[in-house]
Amino acid sequence: DGGITQSPKYLFRKEGQNVTLSCEQNLNHDAMYWYRQDPGQGLRLIYYSQIVNDFQKGDIAEGYSVSREKKESFPLTVTSAQKNPTAFYLCASSIVSSGNTIYFGEGSWLTVV
Amino acid sequence: SQQGEEDPQALSIQEGENATMNCSYKTSINNLQWYRQNSGRGLVHLILIRSNEREKHSGRLRVTLDTSKKSSSLLITASRAADTASYFCATGTGNQFYFGTGTSLTVIP
What we know:
Largest sheet of chain B: 6 strands, mixed
Number of strands of chain B: 11
Radius of gyration of chain B: 13 Å
Distance between the termini of chain A: 35 Å
Shape of chain B: globular
Radius of gyration of chain A: 13 Å
Largest interface: A-B, 30 and 27 residues
Structural class of chain B: mainly beta
Oligomer: heterodimer
Structural class of chain A: mainly beta
Helix content of chain A: under 10%
Distance between the termini of chain B: 38 Å
Order of helices and strands of chain A: EEEEEEEEEEE
Number of strands of chain A: 11
Number of helices of chain A: 0
Largest sheet of chain A: 7 strands, mixed
Shape of chain A: globular
């Protein structure tokens, strides 16, 4: 099936640890995105990438890092510098054109313990 | 921030009634999209309206766009319990998408 796969669905992080969330898409989309969603809130853009080996910071990039070595993959690392990482993380992708639709994965819940 | 805002934040209606939610945004846009999110899940695309369009229909959904007021509305007609979800508007310029804060809709059977 075509789509976006995020893993793991649930992840627990200890204080001071880095964790990496996986995002893979088989839709042949050039653009990929990471959003953060806090309970009862909207989505905030962390990072986005329009092409392999290139990515841009969104509104809340501090404490996060990404890579885009392959078209299909856009992993997000939540570093120990992110002081409040407990949230729901959503990966998305789209074609690169005006008026395009963005497709989402099922999300990953990250909790700091 | 370019984030839009939906209004109301929460809406509760009886099954069969119509539900209307609004979105206001701040900057010029190429298009505006509405998405639905069931609790704890990813977002699902519902409908896209371009900046040169004023109204668009898709099944029980009707979307309007007023670029002079920088606002859009989503109407769900003859609501069903399965429509219970959060609804978000997203504005796009190029390949950046900015989402509103969402309207939480509860449809009571």
